[in-house]
Amino acid sequence: MSGDTRKSLISKIISLSVFTLILGSYGLFQAHKLLSGPIIELDSPHTGVTVSSNLLEIKGTSLNTSFISLNDRPIYMDEQGHFTEKLPLYPGYNIINIKAKDRFGSLVSKNIEIVYNEQKS
Questions:
Q1: Does some domain include residue 121?
Q2: pLDDT: is 3 or 14 the higher one?
């Protein structure tokens, strides 16, 4: 094998290795969203708060989600994953459960603990 042929072969192997590394890295970067499972981010309310209204508005975002529920009742989100739901509260201590599932069956759940202090006039 001549020197030029050997250099050409080494150059091709290095180019192919770099291309494979870049392609693999990009694939892992894109697959991270799928591998991480569903994510629930609540904007409001925060757990542990006391409210004086019996109607509570729950706002948040759910990522990598194919199904989401509030107290086991399906709710809807927009294309970016934002959701807003209103929920009546019982006087006293309330636990609100939000569950999200992705298309592979991975499930995540969050609880919000709220105290409704009824204002009597």
A1: no
A2: 14
